[in-house]
Structure formats: structure tokens, C-alpha cells
């Protein structure tokens, strides 16, 4: 039972109980706005866990 849910928790599309493929068009501006309002950089707790981003190596795609 799969579904696509927007950042506000609203179900955009929901699959039935059988095998099914669902399609949904996402609005990038809605996703960008939600990401701006999530202060993940302020909620990090490096006093509890290691900053794994310091070990990251940039790789060409």
C-alpha cells in the first residue's frame, strides 16, 4: 500500500491494495519552501554523534 504525501502531510495519490503503479507530479517550489523551513543545520547534535560530512569526499557524477 503505497502513497505520495506532500510536506504538509496531505496524500497526493494513493495506490490500491493490488499491484499498481501510481503517478504524481510534484511541485518543486512546494518542496523547496518546505526544505527552507526545516532548520536541519541548527538541529545537528555533534556532541552526540560524529559529523560524517567532514569525511565526505566530493566525486564527479
Report on this model:
This protein has 61 residues and is largely without helices or strands. It has one domain (3-55). The protein contains one helix and two strands, in the order E-E-H. A two-stranded antiparallel sheet has the order 1-2. The longest helix has 9 residues, at 28-36. The protein is elongated and about 45 Å long. The model has no long low-confidence stretch (mean pLDDT 85).
Question: In percent, how much strand structure appears in the residues?
Answer: 5-15%
Placed side by side, the strands forming the largest sheet appear as 1-2
Shape summary: elongated
Low-confidence stretches: none
The chain-level structural class is little secondary structure
Specify the biggest β-sheet.
2 strands, antiparallel
Q: What count of structural domains? A: 1
The share of residues in helices is: 10-25%
Order of helices and strands: EEH
Annotation, overall tally of beta strands: 2
Mean of residue pLDDT? 85
* DSSP summary: helix tally: 1
